[in-house]
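Input/output pair, single chain:
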Amino acid sequence: MKNKLNRGRENKVYISLLLIAGLAFGVFFTSKTWMYDDSVIAQTAFNESIGGLSQTTLTLRDWEYNPNNELMEVTLERNHTGTDAVEPTFSFYAKEQNESQKYNAELVYQSDNNMVVQIENVPESFQVIGLFVTEHRDQNILKQAYKKQLENKGGETTVTDQDIKESDLPEPEEVIIVGDYRKIDINQSLVTKTDKGYKKENIIADMERTKQEITTIIEEDIPFQEDLITTLKEEKQSLKQDMAFETNEEQADTEREIEQKDKAIEDAKGEIEKLKKKVKDLRDKYQNREEKLNTLTQNKNDNKQQENDKVDADNAKSNQQDANKNKQDKNNSSSNKSSNDKEKSNEKNDY
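Output:
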């Protein structure tokens, strides 16, 4: 009886320990979703220029993560701002903060000014991850720059490309783009797309940014300049009224202040005209992107229609073949029946 009681107590202890372990496990792996994290957000700013490379200015446009397949996707805008005639190439890898393990990062799509990089096998427990972007300049350009540098220093002028060691050339430059789990979008359907899919996605994103820029100019920037003009005119009118009670010297100072107001008013009017022109240019850009998107969609529809037409043609051909076969079978059947009737008639006559 005593042994049974002891075993019962032991079982309760084991069950309690298992429950505690399960609870701890659940807390650890779901803490990101319900526990407050007051640590500093270590996120590279979106839609702002990223310095650090001599030939390229990068801009972080989007960062998504799919916990189902542990896939991460980073969209970067790339602008060649250096003097090299040949644009550089890029290599990538990723690493979590305070961790040594590197994650494979692959360039899955690039256009004239966009790059999409995917990072694989990123566990859901990640907190802060860095995408390391290395800029590789053209070797021939670097060698020419090195020889010119030697010439400017009065050194050997007969140096050939073969004489230049790799260690003589500058190291590739690198920037780290940081992603914080609190700022990275969760996308449960994120997968690798086709080139057309990425192209369509980039066009739509560009259109959205252009539309937002137009809205900001119309609803904020232009009204600000208009309000500024109204304020300056009111101040100018007040100064003119005060001149009636001023000395000649004070009036001279007021005249100069009024001239400054007039200049500020003209500057504000000029800024409004610039903003209106920018809106026109942005609308033209939006229309251009819209036409690109329509063309891309139309091509997709045309390809689908061609596939449907091919299927219809194949079906029609198959149906025609079946019809011909049925007709042939019918003719053969009629021929056989006629032959049989003729044979029966001959037999009857013979009888």
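The first strand starts at residue 49 and ends at 50. Residues 210-308 form one domain.
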